[in-house]
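Attaching the record inline, Q. Sequence:
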Amino acid sequence: MRGARPERALDPLVRRVAAWRPGERVLVACSGGPDSVALAALLDRLGREDEVEIVLGHVNHGVRPSAGQDECVVLAVGARLGRTVALARPAPARDDEATLRAARYAALLDLARACGARSIATAHTAEDQTETVLLALFRGTGLDGLAGIAPSRALAPDVALVRPLLRATHAELATELRRSALPYAIDPSNADARYRRNALRERLAGMREDFPQLDRAVARCAEIVRDELDQTERGARRRAVRARLRARSALLDVTFAAIDAAAERDGLPPG
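Structure, as predicted:
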């Protein structure tokens, strides 16, 4: 049960998305911020249990005064965990959001290939999923936009991009961060209103006080849409469970969690 052992609460989420094999090498994208440091701590622990080799990858764009501090934080995290840190210092032509993101992923891909990693793990959370889905919705998106951030996709034919924390919230990652007692840095650009995502984040902060399950609900919606678009086995099982409940006139008030659990068992929710 989630919460019974908070230090292990995120393990099933990670293992569900990231089915890494023993002996595999994974590059963990670590900016030095709290979420990415929490991911590094979590994957360090799971990597030791599952015999997966972890390498921390840090991209220093050098576009803000604290960039050097962030790099030092990641080096300190690597030293504390006993993990190798791979560094990249690309020089983007501009410092706009899209340019920096493209440069970051290109640099991470180069680092992954250099260290022999076949996948890159990033610390995108349920809050990131909310922002992505809403920004797409505001642009007038279709179903692809409502599917939000994919839990995994091919960054290149030989390297996958994996986001194992899309169901996890900042609060859950904070628990992992406290457990690890690792250093982290706060990115001052998160308050820069030039970036649309930051402007949306500020407004969502107030909404979360009235709707505390907002991020879980959006993450759940995005996952359902993606499963339907990709025609996954999990999506087919959910549909089958709903159809059986509907035939019994028992679908009303059944939670998504109950349907999802029943889909895992390929049965019906109790009750």
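The first helix runs from residue 11 to 17. The mean pLDDT is 89.

More tomorrow.
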